[in-house]
Amino acid sequence: MNLPNSITLFRIFCIPLLIWILASSRFSSVTGEKELLASALFIAAAMTDGIDGYLARKRGQITTIGILLDPLADKLLISAMFVALVQFNPSLVPAWIAIVIIGREFLVSGLRSIAATEGFTIEASDLGKLKMVVQIVSAVAVILAHRWLEWRIYGHFFLPVHWIAYVAIWFMVCVSLISAVDYFAAFWSKIDQRVVKRRRRAFILSRRKKPLSAGANRDVATTT
């Protein structure tokens, strides 16, 4: 087991620990201990997404199991987090938002699986990368908004934690839906191109086949 794959496994192992922290009564929400610990663990787990890929490319340790585990770990982390947030802070994350997020992840995974069977790949778009960043920010904001409505920064200046979480959640839903449409458009264009190439190949082969059969008939006629 190389280092990049170990980091990916760490991200997967963080998922049950993160859910346990949010659901456990061992940590107090009065002091914000639960929210701060869960936020720190989620940020650490999310940061490993870029670290393992960077190390795998730099060290030349890109493996089949790493290619399989890395996107799986991302989707498990995000899906588990938003399912947990439905119960942890339902006023900001109703159930339908979690369904949209998880459904989007399944859709993109399905499109990539079909693309792989067809012999091409769908790379992560800029919208997809932005979606991941917004998901991390919105999830952390929702966790913190469970305890604090606002943070005093300096003097009479406050950081509106609740409103940041509210705006981030809706922005995340919009970016997730737009990026899903973007992935589907990229998938459809490549599939359409392959269908056109297959039709052209079949047409060329059919045109080549006719003169060969006619020549064969002439040879048969001369020999008889």
First-to-last CA distance: 72 Å
CATH classification, class level: Mainly Alpha
Low-confidence stretches: 220-224
Largest sheet: 2 strands, antiparallel
Domain count: 1
- Helix segment tally: 6
Rg, nearest Å = 26 Å
With strands numbered from the N-terminus, the spatial order across the biggest sheet is 1-2
Helix content: over 70%
So, the CATH homologous superfamily? CDP-alcohol phosphotransferase transmembrane (TM) domain
The helix/strand series, from N terminus to C terminus, equals HHHHHEEH
Q: How many β-strand runs?
A: 2
Q: Hey, roughly how much beta strand do the residues contain?
A: under 5%
What is the third-level CATH name, the topology? Four Helix Bundle (Hemerythrin (Met), subunit A)
**Structural class determined from secondary elements:** mainly alpha
